[in-house]
Amino acid sequence: MAQPGLVLPTPSMQSQIHELAKTLPPPRRQNTACDNCRARKVKCHRIPGQEKCQHCQSKNYPCTHFVQQATSERKRNSTTARRPRNPSSAPSPLSPTPSVGSSLLSPITDNGVHNIPPYIMPSGTALPLVFKYGFYPPITLDTPTRDVLSYLFSPPEDTTSDPNLLNSGRLKSPYAAWGDQAVKLEDDVFKSELAFDLMEIYFQIVHSRLPLLNPTQFRNRLRTSLSSNPGSEKPLHPALVATVLAWGTKFSEHPLLIADRQSHSGQSLLSKTLINRTRDLAEALKVHRIPNQDHVVIGLLVETLQSQNPDDPSAFHGFWLTAATRHLLDLQINHKSVAAQIPDTETRGTLIFAWWMACICDAYSSLYYRHKPVLDDDDYDIDFYTADPQVNSDGTAPSPREQLEFLGYYRAAHSLARTARQMSRQLWRPITDADGIPFETLRTFASALRIWREKYLARVGVPKNYNAGWDFVTTVSCFASDAQYHVMWIVLFNALDDYGVKELNENDRSGSLPENVQTRLYIEDAMRRVGEEALNGALRIAALTEVLSANEYLKLDPAVVEFHIIAAGHLLARLGRQEVSTCIVGLEQYSHSYEEAGDHAQDIRKTFEQVRNSGIDLNHMAAIVKQIAAFPTTTTEPEIPPGGHEPLSPSVLGSFQMNGVLNMDGTGILMDVDEGTTAFVAAHKNEVSAS
């Protein structure tokens, strides 16, 4: 059940998104032309039986055709033979967790005698789920989907383990902790109906951003598995089913989920439980250890499903992304010669898309959370992900939005990801922490970001002719691309503030004046420009957040722009900017599906209050930001423009206008401070409607 007025992708569009995502262009043929033909750019054609190609024979040139062909063949064979793997590995039975001995996991010993330790099964308590469903009897890859649902939708453990809560005077149902509607989960038919509802929510919302599954195939297999006659077809991977349903609980407006949130201050206890059980099931089925297609997809989906707070000890932040990336390396999807030889187009397309998703996420995650990336630029040689123009089943071509998303978005994202990867390897080193950022390194990164802006931002960011009729997918995709670029400047600013510039730090430590005053001024001017870019980026992200919040799109976002809003909010708070309120409101809306976003909103609010009382909270950049031109923060409240649309909130409108972020009529011209890159943003509430 979606919010009123929100039109989400239809099943046909979901299938089309998947087809576009998994489309792999034909692999390029290895160039076996001889040296002379290659130098003259002519076709190298050799008649069988002849030692020379036609061109070299006619010109009486020495020919290297045989050498080139043998070299290419030798490379191809050596690559394939080095680590031959099949993308679909054999299933593995479930093993006990290392933390619990096998004698404790199995209630029955080898000789058939019951051996349940009294401290595990105290008198009067129900059998814990870890014994009942998770490990004994084990859930394996062949377990029927109905049994998987029984495990996922079992009553919360903290209720069933305490017999006092089951007294009729205190608790009428073991499901009561999930709200007054959860008692319906005692019915197996209702469990199946809820599973179908959660699956549809996944494909409507999450799939449009992470198209890793085939919607038609998954729907058919789930319906077959839960039918009265499941047949002999192998059931869906239990951890994959759990992952899809757990995603659905984040965004579903099912009456059961609504009642659950109302019982827990807007947070869903059922959703948290399913996420934990999904992780437990994935670990038990060795998803992180055995490389195959299902495990790659599960790893990528679980990573963004869980808490995005790197300090959360229960989230294992980055673990599942790293596992999926290493699976792809083990399957050698990073080798063009191997990827092109996968016979099944569905498998090949899914793994190719998964590779680029993992590649891009690995780079951005390393930059955001200050660690080195798993991948290097030379870890792959496959052609970059592209999708040839597709024709729909009715003969029509994809919409311009779809072509933009699949033909332009990922290429631009990969280009920016390479810069992010380089920044991570230079900024998050112990030597940088100790000495500061070398000035040449700072110049290199600033130049790379400006080059990307000139080449890609107008294509994938919010354009001048932004259409207020864009649908949910188009709006969130476009806004995320725009925010992705601007948050890079904020990250660079934070690194400068923490570490400073190496050359200036050396002078400050020695207490001596720089040999060349002009050099110091030049470096400080470069730092000031980074500060301007970062402030402009934070203001731009705040304006985009205002639009997404006004349409309640942040409730439906699978953590795509969460970090951007957090980073922008913290910077605006440290600078004492009143536009921070927009980021706080956005994060509070985000907490509907990601609880940690609400905690970040509180931290940002506290920082802002401290800055208002004590001054700007900066280190190396404290003196630099004072050189940035101060913008007025007050203005008369504008009238509502013709058409009756409601403008932005007065608390942030004036500052956005004075900073060149919004037009004076309040309808939303977004502009970069330095070079005037513009993009139209409809900022009035409910203006972004579905087309």
Automatic annotation (TrEMBL):
GO molecular function: DNA binding; DNA-binding transcription factor activity, RNA polymerase II-specific; zinc ion binding
InterPro entries: Carb_Metab_Trans_Reg, XnlR_reg_dom, Zn2-C6_fun-type_DNA-bd_sf, Zn2Cys6_DnaBD
Xref: SMART domains: GAL4
A matching Pfam family: Zn_clus
Keyword check for Metal-binding: yes
Location of the Zn(2)-C6 fungal-type domain: 33-65
Keyword Cell wall biogenesis/degradation: no
Region Disordered: start-end pairs: 67-106
PANTHER family to which the protein is assigned, alphabetical: GLUCOSE TRANSPORT TRANSCRIPTION REGULATOR RGT1-RELATED-RELATED (PTHR31668), TRANSCRIPTIONAL ACTIVATOR PROTEIN DAL81 (PTHR31668:SF4)
Name of the molecule in the record: Zn(2)-C6 fungal-type domain-containing protein
Organism: Lentinula aciculospora
Organismal lineage: Eukaryota, Fungi, Dikarya, Basidiomycota, Agaricomycotina
